[in-house]
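Why does this matter for the project? Reviewers at the last site visit asked to see concrete outputs rather than summary tables. In response, this paragraph embeds two records directly. Each consists of the residue sequence and, immediately after it, the corresponding structure tokens. Nothing has been edited or filtered.
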Amino acid sequence: MPRVNRCIELLEQGQPIYYTGVEDLSYESGRALTGTWADFLSIDFEHRPFDMIERSLFASPVLRRRRLLNTGLPGCQEHLRAFAE
């Protein structure tokens, strides 16, 4: 079964994983990072206000909904089907 988190796949294969820090949580920044070289994105919520609207706008283009949909994890199909198109 494929993993939702590519980092786990890489670590299981003994491969390194790479990340980049994110400061701008705008929708445009999220779109720009969809093709990033990084395996994961690090967002600092300790030193900034936790803004759910900002986080949601940033995450909407970044989430790989199609990959989540294809994993077969319970609940993913119903929740993500509307967004995967």
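We now turn to the second protein, recorded in exactly the same manner.
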Amino acid sequence: MAQRLDPPTSYRGGKSQKAPESSPCRGERQRRARQRERDGLAVFTIVGHHDRLVTALLATGHLTESAALRREAVNQALGQVLDEWSTRWAK
């Protein structure tokens, strides 16, 4: 999800390279980050067992088998589950 929301600016030799301060890419990333903050959103990096998470998302209907093959779809489904969970517990 973080990759989709805030992708690296460039690649060289398989390593992400930071864009110069004046780069339009850097400005665009900052604009998106500020918009997420205004919307009350945050990007979290979490570590979990891939197969168990995907199996749980499939079993609960948050993910289809074809979507389970796409990392972005898995990230979105996991974000949706966390958002539902936090909404229930925040009441």
